[in-house]
Structures are given as C-alpha cells and as structure tokens.
Amino acid sequence: MTDEDLRQEVRAFIAENLPAEMAARGKKMYHPYKPDVVFWTQKLNEKGWSAPGWPVEYGGPGWTVPQRHIFEEECFLAGCPMISPQGLTLVGPIIYTYGTQEQKDTFLPKIRSAEHTWTQGFSEPNAGSDLASLQTRAVREGDEYVVNGQKIWTSDAHSSEWAFMLVRTSTEGKKQAGISFLLIDMETPGITVRPIISIDGGHELNEVFFEDVRVPAANLVGEENMGWTYAKELLAEERTFSAEVKRHKGQLSRIKDIARTANLRGTPLIEDPHFLRRVAQLEIEVLAHEATLLRVVAEEQAGILGAAPTPSILKVRGTELVQRLGALMLEALGEAGMPYYAEKDYFLDTPDDPPGIPGAPGISSDFFFRRSLTIYGGTNEVQRNIIAAQLLRG
What we know:
The chain is of the alpha+beta class. It has three domains: about 5-85, no CATH class; about 120-225, Beta Barrel (Butyryl-CoA Dehydrogenase, subunit A, domain 2), CATH 2.40.110.10; about 240-390, Butyryl-CoA Dehydrogenase, subunit A, domain 3, CATH 1.20.140.10. The chain has 13 helices and nine strands. The strands form three sheets. The protein has a four-stranded antiparallel beta sheet, with no helix packed on it. It has a three-stranded mixed beta sheet with strand order 1-4-5. The protein has a two-stranded antiparallel ribbon with strand order 8-9. Helix 5 (about 85-100) runs antiparallel to helix 6 and helix 10 (about 310-335) packs antiparallel against helix 13.
C-alpha cells in the first residue's frame, strides 16, 4: 500500500465511523472527553489501528514512520478524539519491552481497546523537574508492596482505571538507583484523588494520596530498583510526543480560517501583508520541525542513535510553537477572542459562534491550558540545561 492509498483509507474510515458531534468537539481542541476517547479507541481497535506505534506482534498495524505520521495527521485534522497517550504511547511500550508475559497478556489488549485507561504517577510536590528526588515509598511485604506518599499534576487520575508509577524501593546509593516501576489499580483501598482546576477552568490535573496501599508484587515491571532506567525511555518518548506537529497543523489551519473572516480596517485579515508574513514564518518553522521529528523517529527505529539530546530539542521547540500559534489565533480573533467559553458548558450545549467569527469557542480555553506545555514532561528550562550539558560535554 502506498502512503497516498493509506491516507485515502484513513479518510474514508473516519468519514464512515466518526460522529459529527464528536468531530466538532475534537476540532475545538478542548481536553479529551473520556466517552469520546473510549468510543474512538474501540473503533480503531476493531480496525487494528488503535496502537499505531506498536510492533505487529503486540497488536500494531506494522506501519512505517511516514505512514504512522499520515494516520495521526488525518485523525487530528478531522477532529478525532486523541487516543490516550498515557496507555498507548507511554506505559504500553514499557510493558511489552520489560514486562512479564502475564503482564503483556493482561494489560496490552485492554490498553488497545481502552477497557483500561491510564494515569502517570511521576511528579511529586518536591520532585517535579528533579524527578529522582521522589519520596513515595513502596515497601515489600511478602507478595505485596505497601505504598505511601503523594503524587501531583496527575493527568486524568480522576477518570483512569490504572496508574503507572515511580516509587522508591531503596534509599541506598544514588537516588536514581532506588526507584521502581509499579502498576496500580486506581480502585485499590487507600488511594485518594483530589482535583486541581486549571486556569482554563478545566479538570484534567489532580493530586493523589497513597495511604498503606497494597499492590501485588506481580505488578512490578522489570527489576526492582531499575525503574529509573525504564522511566528515562518513557520520558524520551513523552518529550518526542510533545513535538506536537499534528496540533501545529491544526492551529495553522484554524488561523487561516479565522483570518478569512476577521477584518482589519474593513479588509479581510488574510489579505494583510504583515499578518501573512507572520503566518508564513510560523508555517516554515512548523515544516522544519516536522522534518526534524520524522528524521529523528526514523533514525531511532533504524537503530541509529545519535549523541544529540533530540527528545529535549523536540520538546522545547514543539511546545513553544504551540504557544506562539495559540497567541496568533487569539490576536486574529481580536475582540471576538475575549469571551470565555467554559469547557463544561461546551459539552452540555455548544455555544454559538460570535457573529462573523466562526470557530472562536475553545480557542481562549485551549490557549490558557497550553501554557502548561513548557512545564510538564520536564520544564523547558531544564531541557535547555540537558541540551547544553550533552552538546558541550567532552
């Protein structure tokens, strides 16, 4: 199958299976709505497409890097719900790489079908960018670990069935050496989830408390005290995922749509040379960033590992482009961008677009939330330190 054949097949599948109201929610770029995510993941799983980056032996479609990119781009531009990255992009590959056969048989099918959705328990109040300082303890007692501690900024903890967590199992030696990787059922007694409402009014983040939570030792992934090794691979994938190329293209498309309707002194904004230069500059940067992402992912899959800290580079560049594109969208809207459309109201009853400016609902909310992109996954300031340390080492 050629890449163009796949693109047409994906478009046809989306047209046949994606409900119009779901696509409308997706195009507003609000937080993922779990019923939509589960529905769409199940549809993709029936087709064999719910785990586009997984090897064939674990249920992946066997696509090349460009084919996976085509699939993800078409889904995003069509407004498809984003399949959960915590399960499919982050913990799934750790389980099929380091997990036991029982863990693979138990968890991987339910990740692909969205029967299980996942939350990531890494950051703590005093261990964010310095993740190795985490203090949540897991003490082995027979066939169980007893977990005590706190996690924070825990995305989707309030709606997820399972959590993958870093816990401290030893205090000897370097702090990185005493960390293990556990899978925890969120219904386990002793877990308390408290919401963190973000600046856009949405509820995605949480703080989670663990008090004498008993976890089967069979839920340890890989070896005890080797969790830092697995986490580094997961964080590299998370930072690559933060390249956000799909979102950039969606934002560029919305900027152009808005500019065709918005007026500047009686002239369509799309005809203003100064505005067009700014759009063109951002589009050039997005295309260059996309080329870098495709090259890096292809090299990794081919086993060509360079010395450059590419996940950090992609994370910094991708997240900052999202914020710049969001700011330009708000500027293009002008006063139509001032009304605030709460996400909860949008899901209950879609607000009308302001007269003459289609597509305004969701933009201000999304802009506020995306301020967090340069913080999570390791702040961009820390990523720049990583880049400098690796490139100047020697």
